[in-house]
Specification:
Radius of gyration: 19 Å
Number of strands: 2
Oligomer: single chain
Length: 97
């Protein structure tokens, strides 16, 4: 869940010891993921500082999210059993009824 948290601008720390993937390297270079590799990192990289958050959530919907949800919605439209169970109230995409 580190990547998801980083995408929401939540401070993320990882103690993963395997090969670091490209996405995690990108997030680390962008300052959105802190890789902890030693005991010293625990003392120097984890800072108990209150984050400044906006009073209201920022609208960060992207075109990618809308395309993904659109494809899911079209798949839902083809499956009647799935159609009756799914509601998606918080997406920007306008669905045909």
């Amino acid at each position: 869940m580190n990547r998801e948290a980083a995408s929401l601008d939540v401070p993320v720390y990882s103690v993963f010891r395997g090969k670091i993937g490209a996405v995690d390297q990108f997030l680390s270079k962008a300052g959105r993921l802190v890789l902890l590799q030693s005991l010293e990192d625990l003392r120097t990289k984890i800072l108990p500082i209150r984050r400044k958050r906006p009073a209201t959530p920022q609208n960060r919907h992207s075109g990618a999210l809308n395309r993904i949800v659109g494809r899911l919605w079209r798949a839902r439209s083809r499956n009647t059993r799935f159609r009756t169970a799914w509601k998606w109230p918080h997406c920007e995409v306008q669905w045909e009824k």
